[in-house]
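residues and backbone:
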Amino acid sequence: MARALVVLLFAAPLFAQEITGDQLWAALLQGNKQYVAGTLRYEQLAEERAKLKNSELPPIAVLACSDSRVPPELVFNQTLGAMHVVRSAGNVADELGIASLELSLNAGTKLLVVLAHENCSAVGHSLGTGEPATPAQQALAKRIRSSFAGIGYEAANIRKAVEANARASAAQLLANSKAIRDAVAANGLKIMPAYYDLTTGAVTKID
């Protein structure tokens, strides 16, 4: 199973390995294929809870949307200890979200996925020209709209807007976090914007 593959990749002493972000991304895509096929099985959770009771060193971090239909652990068929996940509407990270991602970083963290999804409501609402109802939602829309350069505010542009917002979120993580920039420069951390299809369940890289 793909989740076993990720476990295998860091089963040996983590800091002694040369795991790459590309290897971890390939493992996640393999797990996603199993999720698409509906063949997930979780049979060793009790053992994994015991093994991870006192420490964790996740090799993957994920910034995902809070949409209930897109749970990263299921989408990628991963289990305990594999991924540190931060979720917010529109897969954007404010100062607290960035702090959460920074706290997950270790010398073995080689992949940070920004996981966007089809028909994201936060992005869709931001495509509208009206102002959201609350100050907090207005701040979210302003952040998301900052990624819409060259994209018209029409519902038909939702796919382009979702992808642009994911790329912007990845860029903003780098711009606003020295810890993340250092992890990229010193430890080879790879940042990967990705897109989840609600119909098929498949995840693809956003170029």
Notes: The radius of gyration is 17 Å.
